[in-house]
Fold these 3 entries.
Entry 1:
Amino acid sequence: MVYSQLLQVFNHAAPLRGAFLVALILGLGPLVMSNSVYAQGTAEVAQQAMVNINVADAQSLAAGLKGVGQSRAVDIVRYRETYGPFTSVDELAEVKGVGKSTIEKNRHVLVLE
């Protein structure tokens, strides 16, 4: 474990400095580092932009959804224009080429407003 990485995390986590010092003294660097990486990952998810599938244009859909390219995003907009607003996130599966796995990969960012 590279302790410079731990020190970098230590400097950005003021409320947890005591715990980091104890971890460094006891040689628990890998444990602390894995927890800080987890915290960083959850913060990134929280910062990820939500995608409102009832108002987003094709460009926003393609940019905000994993596994959805420009042509599939156009299909989503076309479906919405034809059948009206989505009543559930799972209704996206009605769009040709959008499967349940695509919905599950994106469920945490999909909203209906």
Note: The chain has two domains: 3-47, 51-111.
Entry 2:
Amino acid sequence: MSGFALCEEISVRFRDTDAMGHVNNAVYLTYLEVARQAYWQRFEEKTTYDEVPFVVAHVSIDFRDQLRVGEVARVCLRTTWVSRSSFGMEYELRERDSDRIVATATTIQVTYDYEAERSMPVPDWLRAELEAIEGHALPPGPTSG
């Protein structure tokens, strides 16, 4: 989809669904995580996924339609801003074949020093990688509109 740095396809599994037969709302968090992992794999500075220097501090999801077993979720994401110690991502989840929007989401990641157990400034290399993937400089904070 245009405007998104990455789209990842995820087949809906039976275990993703609830008693109503549609994907359980909690599973959408896993779908976002799968897309973030694919995004991380695009970084030029190769580090392992267990060296990710951030934690997810906030998630917001708006559910718009249902996904069911046998359908494929296309999860698209982009980084929208980078501040001193955090960055924001936007997501759009569509059912692949019908192209209907099933959810939109945002996450805020805080860069984190695991040894010191506290937030830290966004490393220069991380900002550079995010901007390289997005193809432009990122604003310093959330933007509206």
Note: The chain has one domain: 6-134.
Entry 3:
Amino acid sequence: MRLPQAQGPRSIELKMTPMIDVVFLLLVFFVWTSSFDLPEFDLQASIARPPVGGLESDELNEEIEEFDEIVIQLNQVEGQLIIYMNDEMVSSIDSLTEKLQSVLSLGIQPPVIIDPSDTVTVGNAVKVYDVARQAGSDRVLFAARAD
């Protein structure tokens, strides 16, 4: 007859490889699902706090608030390009460049939205896009119609 042997305390073995695999898979999942794109819209200027100290001129605040976005409307009549910048007629592309540079020299970067009508050629729309980029605008967008 065989006597039962007393067994000592058994050591519990913790396997690390499956745990490392699960942590790695979670890391890969969160990296793949995160978004590295810039936000599509910025906060409105009315939410931003006014600067503390320094110049507190109302004229400067009014000038900056006017340019939350710059809308350039393009129309072409009888081969002549007609340009409106924020509902104000601009005589030529050179004066459009000067106006854009003066706004962008304030240190703000409002989005420039180009809104061509159906009669405007692609070449003229691209020319205005290039002018806006050369003036120093980082965000130049084209308006889309809901037709």
Note: Strands lie at 70-77, 80-85, 88-90, 112-116, 140-142.
